[in-house]
Design a protein that fits this description.
Shape of chain B: globular
Number of strands of chain A: 4
Oligomer: heterodimer
Number of domains of chain B: 1
CATH superfamily of chain B: Formate dehydrogenase/DMSO reductase domain
CATH class of chain B: Mainly Alpha
Strand content of chain B: under 5%
Distance between the termini of chain A: 9 Å
Structural class of chain A: alpha+beta
Number of domains of chain A: 2
Largest sheet of chain A: 4 strands, antiparallel
Radius of gyration of chain A: 25 Å
Strand order of the largest sheet of chain A: 2-3-1-4
Number of helices of chain B: 17
Shape of chain A: rod-shaped
Number of strands of chain B: 0
Radius of gyration of chain B: 23 Å
Largest interface: A-B, 65 and 65 residues
CATH topology of chain B: Formate dehydrogenase/DMSO reductase fold
Order of helices and strands of chain A: EHEHHHEHE
Helix content of chain A: 40-55%
Largest sheet of chain B: none
């Protein structure tokens, strides 16, 4: 983690005020470091210009892995490694293999996607997050602006955030 | 800007603010357990201890301690297994299917319902394991593990093996879904602990929350994970009871061999699951004073689901009968007349009364918005659903093809003890959950405070 960075932190009470503030601040050419919210705010990721998450693609790939592994396992075990006639059917008859294949697809897709989510978001049990304001998990929306990446001065940014409906503007150093 | 829907009743009452949500839900996690909690825990642990003794006797002596005989080889064990799996259907249905349908009323009840699902599936899994007798060899019978007999692999053509995969997948995916929902709420408790100066609690809940930060980028990913998990869980939840029903439907036993079984079992599972959610939540909302979050409106909506699924189950019973008569197979016809008029007539008529007649009372608004009536009916529904599985399983096999093999099933103390064991397990797990985890999804409820809560006047 890079050290000694100065941030201006705007606190917002309402999600709609926050959304307008984000749009307006970005129109003014300010770069927003990140916004922290107690609950998902719809449209915030678009307002911040974030691209759509590619996690569904990861889920699909993991799911396909599950499908192929399950089919290969069943066909190899009952068709080649120890062939057995069960109920007069072919050795590797496909229809009875579908339930296990479906379950393995769902299992791998779900676990693979959640694992990817933890890695992509850099979340682990022994890590403390960087918190700009501890109330951001309770009832406040917190907008953090990195001074190093912006040309405006601290005072100008504060005034802008206040004019956009921020209830408080603080400073935070990491 | 205030947006209030005028058509729908508010989902959250009492003029709650976002801060009140954190306060009301976190309070019981932070405080000491109440006396009532200890009393309930002691009763659950007593049941668990008695059941554990019965389970150990079973493992030591063998399956012979149960009342099974050579005609009735499946009885209470499989009945209880199917009953618990059925109950385990409501949680993921509420959180997955209602999420895809964008039903906001799921938000106050999904957490507790999912917890109930997970504990119910654990309870269900104890029965097939106990029935294996030699538990330690069971893993080679149910999982395709390399072994010294060849390897002689598990039989993938068997619906019992599909069941192993379906239930273990359902359990693990439900657990992940539930845990994903808990992560932001653990962070709420962590940050409250930091402010209150509880270092240890802050560290524990931070570890549980995987260092959640609530950043917009994380929320955006989190939302797509929730949506995909819901999409994956929807066919999964329907597949589980479908496959359970195939344990019976793929056999050639009259009374089991029916193509109607998969949808009929799924409807029955949702029916019993919602009844159990109601039983638990009516107590939980009272004990933890959550009447503003789990309102009469929520209870009414759940009762409507019970009317629908209960009616589907009723139609399925009648269809089964009609097809048995219309199919003109004497063995099949006998199986169904024997259910109605044979030695187990009392089980059949209990099932009909509890499952078909009693939920119809919910057509009356007075009854479906009455807490006492709902509580009593929710228990009656689950008694009825237990009898349904008992009727399907025992009455179909107790009259064998040869009259000299005809038999009855008499449960022993160990049959009952195993059932008691799962009750002890279920309630002690639920009590631990209710004490240490937030019982309502705070992040989701906060997101609807503005649009769906009653405003202070």
């Amino acid at each position: 983690m890079d050290s000694n960075r100065n941030f201006v932190v705007g606190i917002f009470e309402d999600e709609d005020v926050l959304l307008h503030a984000v749009e307006h601040t970005r129109e003014k050419g300010l770069k927003i470091h990140e916004v922290y919210s107690p609950f998902p705010v719809h449209g915030l990721d678009e307002a911040l210009g974030y691209k759509r998450s590619r996690l569904p693609i990861a889920a699909f790939l993991f799911g396909m892995t599950g499908t192929s592994l399950a089919l290969l396992m069943q066909i190899w075990m009952l068709g080649y490694d120890w062939p057995m006639i069960i109920g007069g059917k072919n050795y590797a008859s496909l229809p009875p293999f579908i339930p296990v294949t479906f379950e393995m697809t769902v299992l791998l897709a779900a676990f693979g996607m959640v694992g990817t989510f933890f890695i992509a978001s850099d979340m682990k049990p022994y890590k403390w997050p960087r918190q700009f304001d501890i109330r951001s998990t309770d009832d406040k929306h917190v907008m953090a602006i990195d001074l190093a990446t912006n040309k405006m001065s601290k005072e100008e940014i504060s005034a802008l955030l206040k004019s956009q409906g921020a209830s408080e503007v603080n400073e935070k150093n990491f | 800007m205030q947006v209030t829907s005028s058509i729908r009743e508010p989902l959250i009452t009492g003029g709650k603010t976002i801060r009140d949500v954190s306060e009301d839900i976190s309070r019981q996690v932070e405080g000491k357990p109440t006396q009532l909690w200890w009393v309930a825990m002691m009763i659950s642990l007593t049941l668990l201890a008695f059941g554990f003794y019965c389970l150990c006797t079973l493992l030591w002596e063998g399956v012979g301690v149960w009342g099974l005989n050579k005609t009735v080889g499946w009885a209470w064990d499989i009945t209880n297994f199917v009953w618990w799996v059925g109950i385990g259907h409501a949680g993921t249905l509420i959180s997955a299917i209602l999420l895809l349908f964008r039903q906001k009323w799921r938000m106050s009840i999904n957490r507790a319902a999912e917890a109930m699902t997970i504990f119910a599936v654990i309870c269900a899994a104890t029965f097939p394991f106990a029935h294996m007798g030699r538990l330690w060899l069971g893993f080679y019978w149910v999982f395709p593990l390399p072994n010294t007999w060849g390897s002689l692999w598990a039989n993938f053509n068997s619906p019992l093996l599909w069941d192993v995969f379906a239930i273990s997948t359902y359990f693990s995916v439900s657990l992940v879904f539930w845990y994903m929902g808990l992560i932001p709420d653990f962070a709420v408790i962590r940050d409250r602990a930091v402010r209150q100066g509880h270092k240890l609690r802050a560290n524990i809940y931070n570890a549980l929350s995987f260092g959640w930060d609530g950043a917009a980028r994380t929320w955006s990913r989190y939302e797509s994970v929730a949506l995909i998990l819901a999409g994956l869980s929807t066919p999964l939840v329907l597949s589980v009871h479908t496959i359970v029903s195939m344990d019976f439907a793929t056999s050639v036993v009259p009374g089991w061999h029916a193509t109607i079984f998969p949808p009929y079992f799924v409807a029955g599972a949702i029916f019993s699951g919602f009844a159990m959610v109601l039983t638990l939540l009516i107590i939980t909302r009272k004990v933890f004073k959550l009447e503003d979050y789990i309102t009469i409106y929520h209870i009414e909506l759940m009762n409507i689901v019970i009317i629908i699924t209960g009616s589907i189950v009723g139609i399925a019973y009648i269809t089964e009968f009609f097809i048995a008569w219309y199919g003109q197979v004497p063995a099949e016809q006998y199986a169904f007349f024997n259910r109605m008029q044979g030695p187990y007539w009392w089980a059949y008529w209990s099932m009909m009364t509890c499952n078909v007649i009693s939920p119809q009372l919910f057509w009356f608004k007075k009854i479906r918005t009455n807490i006492v009536a709902t509580f009593i009916l929710s228990i009656i529904v689950n008694i009825g659903m237990w009898f349904e599985r008992f009727v399907i399983i025992v009455t179909s096999i107790h009259r064998d093809y040869v009259p000299s093999s005809w038999s009855m099933f008499h449960p022993t103390m160990y049959d009952m003890g195993e059932y008691v064991f799962t009750f002890g397990l279920f309630f002690s797990a639920f009590l631990l959950f209710a004490k240490f985890f937030p019982v309502i999804n705070m992040a989701e409820v906060k997101s609807i405070i503005k649009s769906s809560s009653e405003k202070k006047h």
